[in-house]
Design brief:
Bound molecules: NADP nicotinamide-adenine-dinucleotide phosphate
Strand content: 15-25%
CATH architecture of the largest domain: 3-Layer(aba) Sandwich
CATH topology of the largest domain: Aldehyde Dehydrogenase, Chain A, domain 1
Number of strands: 22
Radius of gyration: 24 Å
Shape: globular
Largest sheet: 7 strands, mixed
Structural class: alpha/beta
Length: 488
């Protein structure tokens, strides 16, 4: 496996935790410990924060082109090491190598996209309506940022935040999930190699998130939190940000509806279902959680989906031909088990999968449930595993109402051949993103994010860099001659 430093990255140096603590990183396929990395405490986090604060002014003053070129070099380095980085992602997170390669390419693309955006930040200038005053609009970086990422896309969730922060001229402290710290440490090494100045990016790996993060959010020096993770933790962090009015971007959980109308092309719908359900073994915020299928096509759709799910090869992500790797940990497997058991008790039929055989470790068999009762727990809980739950519906109004009947609103999927219906339902779905006849929406050039309790703000697209920029309005009187001619 690629050799990644196992220490904290602070001020351009690799450092042990002040108290010498380390934490294990395991391989979800075997449960074996792969290595130990530094386990930061509050003192380390404050050091990292100080380093980001010190570097901020000079970094904000660098030429946009210089920031752009660092990102571009990092993009090229990542792609030149795609196989090594994919193996790293698979080792700490579990997904099959082909999917990890996809994630590495997706992650790199954020650096390329934001290298292009770094040089396109524009302010404004104009005369105000009264003719007596002029306005200059400046764009400035928000300042030192705290970035917190989950384990499910360990490389891409990092670059999706680091890319725009670098492009905008912000410094940062990154705290990756404790299950997957290696991808972030690898990124730090790559960015340093690409010429990122010391202190701009600091990486703090820790198993003590609560202890380490709260003082930073309440301390008044961090000006922005960009968080990706569960809605539950997001709410807690929003409350911590309130005291010092820290600006936030929150990419939180989802409960995606996947709607198949009676006029859908079922080949396209089943392909879409496989992508929307099985990407990342179902451990994705965009994963289809509730399949609503029109009564007239539900049997055929369920059968075809079950056949496809049944053909998937489950095993360690490093083995060739494997489609479905292990889930991240025992707790993740237990949660899927619990949700399936609850649905079955409430009348669901299992078409494939449904139980974890003894000795399977963290591997969960691809599962299709049909006749799922609307009061099942999985209707209001992210399954985060390879299980598809199918319900039926009769008409459009009903399915839109049921699809929107959730506190979340990240993404929805709609399958129909009718353009009118496609646009109408897209408008009516309470979601930040809609997949129309496709099960894959993520793209670095598109604004990713949710409404309701799925989050605040967007990542990627033209808007991604805005999350890291402030406006400053400078008021100036218009020259006397202009005022005279306006008045007279
Ligand atoms: P999580 O438990 O919320 O953790 C996310 C990150 O927050 C981890 O780094 C975690 O570290 C940290 N964290 C937890 N408690 C914290 C605290 N009190 N203070 C500071 N940091 C804290 O989520 P997860 O299980 O890693 O990821 C899965 C969730 O992420 C799902 O809900 C999924 O939908 C969501 N997600 C959303 C998007 C999106 O773009 N909308 C993308 C991917 C994932 P510790 O583990 O050490 O606590």
């Amino acid at each position: 496996m690629i050799d990644v430093p196992k220490q904290l990255f602070i001020g351009g140096e690799w450092l042990d935790a002040v108290d010498g603590a380390t934490m294990p990183v395991d391989d979800p396929a075997t449960g074996e410990i792969v290595c130990h990395v530094a386990d930061a405490g509050p003192k380390d986090a404050l050091l990292a924060e100080s380093s980001a604060v010190r570097a901020q002014e000079e970094w904000a003053a660098t030429a946009p082109r210089a920031r752009s070129e660092i990102l571009r070099r990092a993009y090229e380095i990542i792609l030149s090491r795609i196989d090594d980085l994919a193996l790293l992602v698979t080792t700490e997170m579990g997904k099959p190598l082909a999917e990890s390669k996809g994630e590495v390419a997706y992650a790199a693309e954020f650096f390329r996209w934001f290298s292009e955006e770094a040089v396109r930040v524009e302010g404004g200038f104009g005369t105000l309506p009264d003719g007596r005053n002029r306005m200059l609009l400046m764009r400035q970086p928000v300042g030192p940022c705290l970035l917190i990422t989950p384990w499910n896309f360990p490389l891409a969730m990092g670059t999706r935040k680091i890319g725009p922060a670098i492009a905008a001229g912000c410094t940062m402290v990154l705290k990756p999930a404790p299950q997957t710290p290696l991808s972030s440490l690898a990124l730090a090494g790559i960015l340093r190699e690409a010429g990122l100045p010391d202190g701009v990016l600091n990486v703090v790996t820790t198993s003590r998130a609560g202890e380490v993060i709260e003082p930073l959010l309440r301390g008044g020096r961090i000006r922005k939190l960009s968080f990706t993770g569960s809605t539950q933790v997001g709410r807690l962090l929003l409350a911590q940000c309130a005291d010092t009015v820290v600006r936030t971007s929150m990419e939180l959980g989802g409960n995606a509806p996947f709607i198949v109308f009676d006029d859908a092309d079922l080949d396209v719908a089943v392909d879409g279902a496989m992508a929307a359900k099985m990407r990342n073994m179902g451990e994705a915020c965009t994963a289809a959680n509730r399949f609503f299928v029109h009564r007239s096509v539900v049997d055929e759709f369920a059968e075809r989906l079950a056949t496809r799910m049944n053909s998937l090869v489950v095993g360690p992500g490093t083995l060739p031909g494997v489609d479905v790797g292990p889930l991240i940990d025992e707790a993740g497997c237990d949660k899927v088990d619990r949700l399936i058991e609850d649905a079955v008790q409430r009348g669901a039929r299992v078409l494939v999968g449904g139980t974890r055989a003894d000795g399977l470790g963290r591997f969960y068999p691809p599962t299709v449930l049909t006749d799922v009762s609307p009061d099942s727990d999985l209707m209001s809980t992210e399954i985060f595993g390879p299980a598809a739950a199918i319900l039926t519906f009769e008409d459009e109004d009903e399915v839109v109402r049921r699809a929107n009947d959730t506190e979340w609103g990240l993404v929805g999927y709609v399958f129909t051949r009718s353009l009118d219906r496609a646009l109408r339902v897209s408008e009516r779905l309470e979601a930040g993103m809609v997949g129309l006849n496709t099960g894959l929406v993520s793209n670095p050039a598109a604004p990713f994010g949710g409404v309701k309790q799925s989050g605040l703000g967007r990542e990627g697209g033209r808007i991604g860099i805005e999350e890291f920029l402030e406006y400053k309005y400078v008021a100036m009187p218009a020259p006397a001659t202009a005022r005279r001619s306006h008045v007279g």
